[in-house]
Amino acid sequence: MLAVELKLSDEASLKGWVNLTKKQGLEALAFKHHKSCYNLEFKLKVVEYYQTHVVGVSKVTAVFNISASQVYSWARAFKLGGLATLISRQKGRPSLMKKKPVKSTHQ
Fold first, then answer.
1. CA distance 63 to 57
2. How far apart are the C-alpha atoms of 36 and 32, rounded to whole Å?
3. Would you list the DSSP string of the chain?
4. Tens digits of per-residue pLDDT, 14-63?
5. What pTM was estimated for this model as a whole?
6. Angstrom distance (rounded) from CA 19 to CA 56
């Protein structure tokens, strides 16, 4: 069994990889070196697809090329708080530095 040979904890990861490559090719398995920022429309599209199609999370992740934990997170947030919970917010503490006034070039 390949999952055992690759020392995976379960077959779900392997099935997810297979579904992903079937949908998007081998490039989809490449490690992404950037942090993705998703807009509200994309998040809603993923949640609606997950709720309306009778497919597993691995199929949803393959269609949208996102992680299973992200699908679960958005679906749970939407279920508990609705659309407002999917809106991106600025993370971290606000800056204590005061913004410099912009000098006008027109006089």
1. 10
2. 9
3. -HHHHTT-S-HHHHHHHHHHHHHH-GGGGSPP-S-----HHHHHHHHHHHHHS---HHHHHHHHT--HHHHHHHHHHHHHH-GGGGS----SPPP-SPPPPPPPS--
4. 777 777 777 767 766 666 656 678 899 999 999 999 999 888 888 888 88
5. 0.57
6. 11
> Using CA of residue 19, residue 24, residue 27, residue 30, what is the dihedral sign?
negative
Amino acid of residue 42? F
| Residue 1 near residue 39 (C-beta atoms within 8 A) | no
Domain residue extents for the chain: 2-86
One-letter amino acid identity for 27? E
Buried b (16+ CB within 10 A) or exposed e, 34-49: eeeebeeeebeebbee
* Cα–Cα nearest to 46, from 67, 26, 32: 67
Closest of 23, 65, 21, 20 to residue 46, by C-alpha = 65
